[in-house]
Specification:
The complex is a heterotrimer.
Chain A (H helix, E strand, L loop, with lengths): L1 H20 L5 E7 L2 H17 L2 E7 L1 H13 L7 E5 L3 H6 L7 H7 L8 H8 L11 E4 L3 E6 H5 L1 H11 L9 H11 L3 E2 L2 E2 L1 E4 L8 H13 L19 H17 L9 H9 L3 E7 L3 H6 L8 E5 L9 E2 L3 E5 L6 H11 L2 H9 L7 H4 L4 H4 L3 H8 L2 E2 L7 H16 L6 H19 L3
Parallel strand pairs in A: 1-2, 1-3, 8-9, 11-13
Antiparallel strand pairs in A: 3-12, 4-12, 5-9, 5-10, 6-7
Helix pairs in contact in A: 1-2, 10-11, 10-19, 19-20
Chain B lengths: L6 H30 L4 H4 L13 H7 E5 L2 H6 L5 H8 L2 E6 L2 H32 L5 H10 L5 H15 L5 H26 L2 H9 L4 H12 L1 H17 L2 H6 L7 H4 L11 H21 L1 H7 L8
Antiparallel strand pairs in B: 1-2
Chain C lengths: L1 H11 L2 H9 L2 H30 L19 H7 L2 H32 L6 H9 L6 H11 L6 H10 L15 H26 L3 H9 L4 H29 L3 H6 L11 H11 L3 H31 L1
The chains are: A alpha/beta, B mainly alpha, C mainly alpha.
Chain lengths: ~450, ~300, ~325
């Protein structure tokens, strides 16, 4: 009830200021991926509509086509979207090609301080070039790859004793990738409730970005780097370092030993299906799915637990997901679009955003002492956000991604060649892309 | 079927059994699609699959609405009012608004039927001219028209994308109608020419002698004779433009997108919403199915591409 | 519907103009009738084709409209024709094309022949068999990913039931050796009815009298089949192969939804590969050259084929 009252109060305040400023009602279109958080945003935005009189419409494109469709839209200077919640890796393109408007002045004028947001999200979603205070988006939705596991299966005494006998340690949330593989191996082919179950559902999708978003969780933690830290486009020896090769081999071993048959082209929604239907003990997926898992009639509640990507021999990272919200420079309604961002940045709205299942990136929300206990996955989300690392965010990100999808899928799933060959070829592909870009 | 002793009777019997067996096998996936539309989202992905299940309209409700989680306070304060809100509430969700399916479906109707009408109209005119008049380079022109169908859609999509962008046809109904019409013209000209060739010239000549103009002779004499061809052509044009995907996914986004790019991507809570996808596929099949069944007696003749000239 | 439109034109035409139209030479009328079609095809097919040819000699990128466009000569063509990955996609396309045609012709013809015996209810069953081809290929491809899932899909359970194996013993999409067949199966399921319809039309076009004559000559049924049925249906069958062949050479929607080209590059057909180059990497110049190569290939094959078809028809 409290929320409703607060809402009503803000609405009254807003309505009065609305009358004074005599703002013109605008039709705004917000573009994002089609997924749970986007639906929650429709609900959340009703408050914005009530406050300002602007009318919100939404254009949601499913993940597999999201980048294609939206980049196409931006590249053709389309006016479909006034607000774009674009993927983190597009920020370079958005900034350099002039698709997004720069928000520094606006932030300053409205008193929005990037220091109020989780640092990783500011770097990941808002800055270009990375590490400089040039902002092209407001962190909108924090997301990161993590793991979901069947707590009820872990807790079954027969599994605990069998696991202990086989691996010499109790069956518990894994601390390292090697432990994770043991657990997946343990459950692979096991009979539970009369059904054969499998170890882990991992990202293997070919068409868009799936397998890249999965394999990086192994690569980073074995010691893969995108380039020489001192020389931004020097990739040989970092992308295809012996550590990186070991990481890629690990991911293939995991795929070969411990995933359900037929999981050769799986991404977020296939993994969810496999997990919800009781096929797998572990599931790799972005944090956005956790509210849905928690509410699921079959696997929800106490039956599931969550843990961050475990560390590997070369470090402890997790693949960053998530997006910032930007104003499209081709929009005729930039004023109103900025109003939306201003509204969205408020603490109250962000708090409600979290309550509806949106992962707020505002520190005021996530650092609130009650946050960690507010949902069973809240702490895992915080821990994961502390170790994030992202793919290239270069303007040529799409070409870089396609090359990686191709090389990795060919090795991990189709079993062609060796890990070294795959990564060597990837370096060549990436060098070619940067040469075409004139950056090498 | 009774006279198995008689050879042709026996043959009929065996033929019947074989054809029906094939039909049943070929129907299985379709039955699976239709029945998945009536499953709950849990039953749809049941492991192992469920053949017997409790039917629900959840898929259809999901197809037409956008749903989201809400706080417990909100749920308590806003109990479900209607049967569909009830279905949604059982999953602990609320309806945030309508989905885009209705719009996409309407776009399909406008673009699919619009381009079918245009391609049949233009195709009839051109086919008549090719059939009746001496046109220089006729055979080359006809092969040229056929060859336009050989281009992979992705290949022409690049310049069409650039062209539409510069003349403002991107993501418009008109642009898509023109495009589908052009793609279908090769088929409609070739099909219809075969039919019009079959209509004896004497009919028109008689009409001309009776004082009809050329146009009157065309629409009062030739067109009624060509009904079968027109109907069959319309079926094939509609099947193509109704179901087309490559151009639709590359050239349309918010305003003019048709249903085929939309249906495979319907997302429920978390993952792909299979019951809603199945419901969408079922609803989307219906108009073409009805259209085809209405015109079915023309279908078989139409598909001969006028090759039957006995 | 078309007649009403023309009615309108005719009625709304002023008398003087009408007289003029009546007076128009056949040639003019012919051009009036043909012009819209030719104009539309020029605008939507030929103009883009010429543009593609031009672009194929440049380094143009459609996502950088402001970058300067450089003439690169035949470099794009050289790069494509020497790229071994592209030959792999050609092989995948050939496998798909050949096997879908073989299966669809065999099954389609057999079905048509069986249906032509006109058993009781054959019309009803024909209509039912035709249903799959009315579905949207993209939707079909998408839904078959679901049917092919070893744990929750129908396909594996049906096969397992008849073969007496575990449903999860094989994975159609995931296995490198099965994936090329997974797309062949779905395409065959969907489009065999098309071949069947054309064959049926062919069978129905054979006059009874020919068989009666053969019957008088005491030719065996087997002989009748090979000397009458097959040759008479052949032109129809070849037409069906032409249309299916062109369509499957261009195949995109069904396969992109079904396998996305995977695993690895196993089912990466040329159209899918081209789409990646053109609309994901935005190498417009390069992909234009690619498109021209594909077009020339299919155009060449089709014209040879049409010549053969005409010969068969003449016989």
């Amino acid at each position: 009830m409290k929320t409703i009252h607060r809402l009503a109060a803000t609405a009254v305040v807003a309505a009065s200021s609305f009358a004074v400023t005599d703002a013109r009602a605008a039709d705004l279109t917000l573009c994002w991926a089609a997924w749970d958080p986007a639906n929650a945003l429709i609900e959340l935005s009703k408050d914005f509509e009530a406050q300002t009189g602007h009318n919100m419409s939404f254009e949601f494109v499913p993940w597999p086509n999201f980048a294609d469709r939206m980049l196409n839209e931006l590249n053709s200077g389309g006016q479909l979207c006034d607000l774009m919640i674009g993927d983190s890796q597009w920020i370079g393109l958005g900034a350099e090609a002039g698709h997004y408007i720069k928000l520094n002045d606006f932030f300053e004028q409205e008193g929005i301080d990037m220091a109020d947001f989780i640092p990783a999200t500011v770097t990941g979603y808002a800055e270009w070039p990375k590490g400089t205070p040039n902002y092209w988006a407001l962190p909108a939705f924090g997301d990161v790859v993590g793991w979901t596991y069947r707590k009820d299966w872990f807790e079954m005494p027969e599994h605990q004793s069998a696991f202990e006998a086989a691996y010499g340690r109790p069956l518990a949330v894994p601390n390292t990738l090697a432990e994770l593989k043991d657990i997946a191996e343990f459950f692979q082919g096991r009979e539970i409730d009369g059904k054969t179950v499998y170890g882990a559902a991992i990202y293997t999708e070919r068409g868009s970005e799936g397998i890249t978003m999965g394999v990086t969780n192994a690569l980073y933690n074995f010691g893969f780097k995108y380039a020489d830290p001192d020389n931004p486009y020097q990739m040989a020896g970092f992308v295809n370092s012996p550590e990186a090769i070991a990481g890629l081999e690990f991911y293939k071993e995991l795929y070969d030993c411990c995933t359900p048959p037929g999981s050769s082209d799986w991404y977020m929604s296939e993994n969810i299906d496999a997990y919800r239907s009781g096929q797998v003990a572990l599931q790799m997926n972005f944090a956005f799915i956790w509210p849905g898992v928690h509410a699921d009639p079959n696997v929800g509640g106490d039956r599931s637990g969550y843990f961050p990507n475990p560390e590997g021999p070369g470090g402890h990272f997790a693949q960053l997901g998530g997006q910032g919200i930007s104003v499209v420079s081709y929009s005729d309604e930039q004023e109103a679009a900025l109003e939306y961002i201003k509204w969205f940045a408020q603490g109250d709205v962000q708090k409600r955003w979290w309550e509806l299942g949106g992962y707020s990136a505002l520190r005021e929300v996530v650092e609130d002492p009650s946050f960690a206990g507010s949902q069973p996955y809240a702490q895992t989300f915080l821990d994961s956000m502390a170790i994030v690392k992202d793919f290239w965010a270069e303007p040529a990100y799409a070409s870089l991604l396609l090359a990686m999808q191709d090389r990795v899928h060919n090795y991990v799933i189709a079993g062609n060649g060796t890990a070294k060959e795959a990564l060597d070829a990837l370096v060549e592909d990436w060098v070619e892309v940067f040469e075409d870009e004139g950056k090498l | 079927m009774s006279s198995v002793a008689e050879p042709s009777g026996r043959l009929k019997w065996i033929s019947g059994v074989l054809v029906i067996t094939y039909a049943v096998i070929t129907l299985l996936p379709l039955v699976w699609i239709v029945s998945t539309g009536f499953k709950s989202s849990t039953d749809a992905i049941a492991y192992p699959p469920k053949i017997v299940f409790e039917p629900t309209l959840e898929g259809y409700v999901n197809l037409f609405t956008t749903q989201t989680r809400q706080t417990q306070d909100f749920l308590d304060a806003n109990p479900p009012q209607t049967w569909y809100e009830e279905i949604v509430a059982e999953k602990g969700l609320v309806i945030a608004g309508p989905s885009r399916f209705g719009e996409r479906f309407m776009n399909s109707v406008i673009i699919g039927f619009g381009s079918t009408f245009l391609s049949v109209l233009l195709g009839t005119l051109a086919a008549y001219a090719f059939s009746r008049y001496r046109i220089p380079l006729k055979d080359d022109l006809l092969f040229f028209i056929l060859s336009t169908r050989m281009m992979p859609p992705i290949a022409v999509a690049i310049p069409i994308f650039l062209m539409f962008r510069s003349v403002g046809l991107s993501d418009t109904h008109a642009g898509m109608i023109l495009l589908y019409t052009a793609v279908n013209l090769s088929l409609s000209v070739w099909l219809l020419k075969g039919f019009i060739d079959e209509i004896p010239r004497e009919y028109e000549e008689a009409a001309l002698i009776d004082g009809y103009t050329r146009f009157q002779a065309f629409y009062k004499v030739v067109l009624p004779q060509a009904t079968t061809g027109i109907a069959a052509t319309a079926i094939f044009c509609l099947i193509f433009s109704w179901n087309e995907y490559a151009f639709a996914v590359l050239l349309t986004s918010g305003t003019a997108q048709t249903a085929p790019p939309f249906i495979p991507t319907i997302i429920g809570v978390g993952g792909q919403d299979w019951p809603a996808v199945a419901a969408g596929a079922t609803l989307f099949l219906l108009p073409v199915m009805v259209f085809t069944i209405l015109l079915r007696k023309h279908l078989l003749r139409g598909i001969t591409f006028g090759a039957v000239r006995k | 519907m078309p007649d009403t439109a023309i009615d309108l034109v005719a009625r709304s035409t002023p008398k003087g103009v009408a007289r003029k139209i009546r007076g128009l030479s056949d040639k003019t009328i012919a051009w009036i009738f043909v012009a819209p079609t030719i104009a539309l095809l020029l605008a939507v097919n030929i103009f883009p084709l010429l543009w593609t040819i031009y672009l194929s000699f440049t380094n143009f990128r459609a996502n950088r409209p402001n970058a300067d466009v450089r003439w690169v000569g035949t470099r794009n063509y050289e790069r494509i024709l020497t790229d071994s990955d592209i030959w792999l996609t050609m092989q995948a396309t050939a496998h798909f094309l050949i096997w879908t045609l073989v299966l669809q012709v065999l099954i389609g013809f057999t079905l048509a022949w069986l249906i032509n015996s006109r058993f009781k209810g054959s019309n009803l069953w024909t209509t039912i068999i035709v249903l799959p081809m009315m579905l949207s290929p993209a939707v079909v491809g998408n839904f078959w990913t679901f049917l092919y899932q070893p744990q929750i899909g129908l396909f594996n359970y049906v096969i397992a039931f008849f073969a007496g194996i575990e449903p999860t013993a094989f994975s159609m999409i995931g296995d490198v050796s099965l994936a090329p067949w997974s797309i062949v199966i779905v395409d065959t399921w969907m489009w065999t009815p098309f071949v069947m319809l054309i064959c049926l039309a062919g069978l129905r076009s054979i006059p009874e009298s020919i068989y009666e004559a053969a019957e008088c000559d005491r030719a065996s049924k087997w002989r009748q089949f090979w000397t009458i049925t097959v040759p008479m249906v052949l032109p129809f069958l070849m037409l069906a192969v032409l249309f299916r062949g062109i369509e499957n050479f261009k195949m995109f929607d069904l396969v992109v939804q079904l396998t996305g080209g995977g695993p690895g590059n196993t089912t990466e057909l040329t159209s899918i590969n081209l789409k990646r180059e053109a609309f994901e990497k935005w190498r417009t110049g390069y992909s234009s050259a690619y498109a021209i190569i594909l077009f020339v290939t299919v155009f060449g094959l089709a014209s040879i084929y049409v010549k053969a078809l005409n010969k068969v028809k003449e016989r």
